[in-house]
What does this fold into?
Amino acid sequence: MTAPPLTERLRRTGSAIVRSPQAGLALVILVASAGLAVAAGSHTDPGTGATVNNFLNAHTLIQMATDASGFAIMGVGATIVIISGGIDLSVGAVYALAGVVMAMVLRAAGPLDPVTTVLLGLGTCLAVSLVCGLANGVMVVGLNVHPFIITLGTMWMLRGIAFVASRAESILVPAPLTNFAKASLGLGATLSPVPMLAMLGVTAAGSVYLTRTVMGRRIFAVGGNAEASRFAGLHVERIRLGVFVLSGLTAGVAAFLGASFYGSATSSDANGYELYVIASAVVGGASLTGGKGSAASATLGALLIVLMRQAIRTLHLDQNYEWIIIGGAMIVAVVLDQGGTKLVARRVAAAAGRAPTSPANPVPESK
It folds into this structure.
């Protein structure tokens, strides 16, 4: 069998991209960015004398990616939990505790060589976040309590532990961590692409895990119908436990990058990040009823939220409107998601030649 011509392959690839769940969100980001670039104006670079757009320049774009990296990395973990039918409100507290413990461990360890310092810091963050995620999963599965309640409780508990352990102090991290997180990688002294590269790496790993592995597909199955998954032989409790561990680990990665980049850790770090992380997942198309979502969409959702924040700064608007805009975006995203789900259900029902099934409109029994 001969391979299809190049034009046919390109047409199929383009059609698949257009139909992908991320296409609409990416288009919104591109259109909003173009509009902001036009509205932002420009200035003259004092060093080179060149005209530079106030928004569309390397420094602003990489800074936006850095701001979005924490939300996006934790958003990938939160999306995995949401796909399974759960929710994790404790990611910000896990971030704070992991960062504080890392800073305390490195302070107690004293001067070390740069490589050992970075590895010890990363290992500490991952270990603390893994324990926190495991605790969330064990309580959700073992106590059979809704994850909203469990993670709401652990959100306060973990932040309280961080507050007591650090005595509300801001603990500095060693210089090798900051040098690592702010490495320019040859792009210039003012550019720090490491958080952005970490964000892309976690997004790629999350996408592969969810779409190319058996474990990832089982998470979708559990979120779509837990009882059917149990009858199919899946270990539903084990899968639910695992998603909270993954969510904790992504919070640990974000904590390592955040504390390293900003040079310190405190118990108030990532306060309120729960809103941004869940908003990133929901704006990215994750369904709060489970069974739907993607890692790439969560990252695009985080970028869109940071783009909103950047637009407020660039256009010199009142920053108090940020919360209003993000909250409105969440509502619109959920409404559109539900509307799309109902539209698909009606089309499927119409194709099957019957009305959609519901408690108020059950399937008639065959005579």
The chain has a mean pLDDT of 86.
